[in-house]
Amino acid sequence: MQARLIPAILEGKDVLLKDRTGSGKSFGLVLALLNKPRLVSKDERRQNKRHITSLVIVPHRELAYQLLHWIERMVNVGEHAPPLSSIAQVLVRDGRMHLDTGLQTLQKESPHVLIGTPQAIMDVYEAHPKVLQLDTLSSVVVDEVDYLIETLARKDPGKSFKRAIEKAKRKLQAHPGTTRQLLDVIYARRREVNARRQDEPGLEIARRRNGQPSSTPMPPSPQLVVSSATLRTHLRNYLYDESGWLDKDNVVKISGTGAKPAEEVQANDGTRKEGQNASVEHSVLLVSEQRVRNIPGSATGASSVPSLGEEAVNGETGACKSVNEADDIDPGLIQKYSTTASPYNPSMMETVAAAFALDVPSIALLVLPSSAPVQRAVWELRELGVDAHGLDLESSANGRSYLASGGGAETSRANPVLLVSTLATTRGLDLPALSHVFIYGLPEGDRVNGKAVDAYVHISGRVGRFGRPGKVVSVVEEKESESDSDESASGEKMARILRAVGVGPVQFAAFA
Ligand SMILES: Nc1ncnc2c1ncn2[C@@H]1O[C@H](COP(=O)(O)OP(=O)(O)OP(=O)(O)O)[C@@H](O)[C@H]1O
Fold it and tell me: What is the pTM (predicted TM-score) of this model?
């Protein structure tokens, strides 16, 4: 995939990229962008002024910092490394680093690659439109595009759904989302030309078929590259036919080569689904007040934890602070947590803590629902004896080491670490030392639909990256009134999600 992606980007093509989680899409994008020429006019060279070449839009700050750290490591390989800020910068908005810091650095120096979250980029654009140099950009990349641009499935809706779909459409029109708004600004001229060309659809199709140039030429504008492991047809159709952002004469669609890992997962129904990593085990634990059990129909798994290799994470063991030394929860919050009701189901939290203690050799990730309070979960898990930390790749002392750890993880760490994130901050993350991902609850709330399946694909895709092994353990609530055949039972919903992804559940041995 990278062998096709990198040349396409260097040739200035628009690209629609889809391949499995962990196949190297983001890494390939970064490699290609770093290798793009940095254009400067003669006048600007005299003033030693350079342009921003590429703008990369990502869904959350952790992914922005991950890409920055990758670039930092690559740039530092040379003996005379240029300052990182001249190569890459990050624009994100959060409590810790106010946007102003990023803005000031950007005003001082233009990076080759600017990586940011949509809202931070929009804020800068609104306050200082010139700083982003949108007129001279050479590339715009939208990573995890289906998370950033919402589109509605265009399937023929049954009557009962019709009103709901109309309502969703109106909502989307009223709130198109920041990424759409940004792309509408960047590609305003392309949109005009595409709209004019669309006035003569028959002629346009014939022209393209014959490879003839259009009488309404495309204005110079940056190439657009969009990428995700889950690029559904309705989004592709939207991008291609409705958005007006693409230069249709110059688009390449790249999807995985179909090259599969050594083995493949055989789903319960005997079908083999392409692209599933066989060395990843998927388990579902049903938790009620009385018991914890594996989802019915789970196959017997390998008895031991998949070994990730012999290499140590940066040669460190037990590098994280111990539970008692934990210093990153505000005492005021601890006071509040100990006196208010928890939003979490205690049996589910205990199950996560027990499964973690029994099976995780070094580092695992717990993914909570999008708006769940992370710090509260960290505190509750620490109360259960787990060395839990909110995922923070930039400010926390250990954050970077999780990114930097090489392809293998240690066999065991004296004090295993559980990183806690939410669905909103998990996409695209690449922490090579992870052996387990725990998912708290159904991936997208109570509904099983395309969005829930895609969410599962992305969460579970934090392990099994680049062919490595791993375990994905979903912990869901089982109500007393539910039976195994109950369609609305959480277990049955998880089973449907696994079937849609094309994997069969495997027993989590500790609860078998
Ligand atoms: N050419 C390569 N050679 C060796 N390792 C690579 C190569 N490309 C990517 N990797 C490694 O593979 C892992 C996954 O890469 P990356 O995060 O780019 O995948 P992705 O396809 O973007 O995943 P996701 O869909 O989850 O965002 C990373 O650890 C990366 O360093």
Answer: 0.88
